[in-house]
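step: validate -> pass
step: tokenize input -> pass
step: predict -> running
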Amino acid sequence: MPAATRAVLRQSQFLTRRTVVRHSSTTSEAANKAGQAASKATDGLSKATAAAGPVISNAASALRKVGGPVGKVVSFVDSMIPPTLYYSRVGLELGKLVFRGQNMTPPNVATFQSYFQPLINAAKNPAAIKSLPSPQNFLARVRNASPKEMALAGVTAAEVIGFFTVGEIIGRFNLVGYRGEPEHHH
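step: predict -> pass
step: emit ->
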């Protein structure tokens, strides 16, 4: 290969190489928001522990002196308070993030009253149960739902089923089935 063509090839290789540039991505922003939410949850936990800690520990120490089964129950409950507070704060912050992400707003008082007024009236006057919405109206509402509403209902149902399934798996400490006693054949 002549020297001139080699030089041309080398020059073309340098021209085609590009420097790798990392642009900011949304994952770093999401990680930053998650870190902020975790710090808020930790702050909330420390405030709750600081406020409730002395009162609970004084009452628990007084009950622990009782001993026996009561003392065991009190010490168990006392040991479960910090993780319960922590995970409730984490769940609250996660709920806030989902609430904001879905652009959800709480219903106003008029909407709340319009939904629950028939139930309140039925409780006050049992004869008013006949005036509650009929199943036919509900079915008509489902039939006339837009595709967007149906998709949202499907996604919500999938989320509920998924969370239920994960809860069952955690509760059983097993992926499939429950541990049980072996069958006895008579």
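step: describe -> The chain has six helices and no strands.
step: cleanup -> pass
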